[in-house]
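ok trying this again, last paste got cut off
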Amino acid sequence: MNANIGILEANYYLPPTRKALSQIFEDEEKPTETFAANVDFERDIGIKALHVAGKETAADLAINAAKRTMEKSGVDPEEIDLIIDFTSIPEDYVAPTWSAAGQVQKAIGATRAFSTAINTGGCASYQTTLKVACSLLSANDRYKTALLIAGDKAPELNHNYFPITVVSDGGSAVILRKGMTERRILGIEVATLGRLHDMWVIPGIHNRNPADIGGKYPRWLHVCGDIQRFNKELIPINLFMFRKVMQGVLKQVGKKMEDVSFFVYPTFSAWDLKAFCEAFRIPPEKISTENLHHGHLQETDMVVGYVDAIDSGRIKDGDLVMLATNGAGFSWGASLVQH
């Protein structure tokens, strides 16, 4: 990674209202289809409650996270050269080519920044955005500081993402800066499988079946997942693709799996985390496990897991940290940060 780009600061915002998983299953359609891994979705998910934004918009969540991160860092808003939104489901407006980046720019007073969005990686959009942001910072002498932001608010009655997880509302922000001597981003590897792009989607306006509105799906924004394809096409290759991106980024920087001190992994579910750890022989003390109580925060999982691990002392000076995730779209990503 050129220019010694590192994570100057990171933080997140989670709305204070919480909703029990049991209530989610009462209010939303309960899963009835069979999952290939023979997992009891309710029993094995490991999530008891999640955060619900209520009247706060998705952009509000991103703005709150950005303000917290800016305050924590002490960075002047005029120092921000880039603002990139990596939200999974940008929902406040449909058009024109909307993201929360402009609203965050206005809210924090970053009048010099160029703002844009990277939303194509689902829960892995964080890794893709890191790669794009580092490339832009490396390629332009004028760019020295970037603010990456996300704010996700699940569409009403769509917190249940069977068979993967239940999703929580929240926002996150990360400040990248050139010339860092610690928390340096050594490398990023991403991979995609375009043939799975429509396996897990929220249908666009022209793809919605009017007969579903008010019946099966009472809101225009509703999540559709093809469980048969999930079982047949994704499950058999998921760990292979994780291995591909993790080994890829390690090879980039001349490191091995045993060199990694700590792993940040999404809070999809307890059974998914167990499968990942068993596949790659990762002991519990080397991976983020405590964040299941937040629910799955989509791409923000990477930031919450990273920040909480630092605050709790699980990531220490000198540690090599790997952040790895996958996301609907369909993509996988892994990045290495040297503390």
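PB: full thing came through this time. The first helix runs from residue 21 to 27.
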